[in-house]
Amino acid sequence: MATPTLVLASSSPRRRELLARIGVTPNRIASPDIDETPHEGEQPRVYAVRMAEEKARAVTRGESEIVIAGDTTVAPGRRILQQAEDAAMNADFLRLLSGRRHRVLSAVSVISPDGVQRTKLSETSVKFKVLHEDEIAAYVATGEGIGKAGGYAIQGAAEGLISWVQGSYSGVVGLPLFETRALLKAAGLTIG
Prior knowledge:
nucleoside triphosphate diphosphatase activity; 23% strand; alpha/beta; Maf-like; elongated; six-stranded mixed beta sheet; Maf protein; 6 helices
């Protein structure tokens, strides 16, 4: 059997950077094209897992290829905050997260060369300080929250606004590395 190669089902540069931290470089990048609209009444944990699994299945996999996909969902309570589309949405998300704890659910799904799909979910608690309007405006002006789940990037300027994190920092960035490494090894990828 051929040595397995890795397909990253994501165009996110953050996921490529995170994989590099564990010594993994995808052989191919494929952007999945799926509908990411939450189902009526869908719980955030279920949504994150479904998204990761659908993204992995949405890309074409060759005979000796392993596919990896991830989804990061920001959830204050039962609400799902998707990616901030513009500055107004970004500011609204930050107001909602201000001074309160929320969960970041980071699901990773891997399809091995034999077609078996395995998925793991990482749950991290994150708390923002109480944000004043000038802090919200300054963060939104950086533009880094646009296109990010929940409207912030913990690996950027938002880190200075977060009072604590309990769980997987890499999961909040976009791919929980502990779970990712275990799934890739189970799929047959050699990792040092």
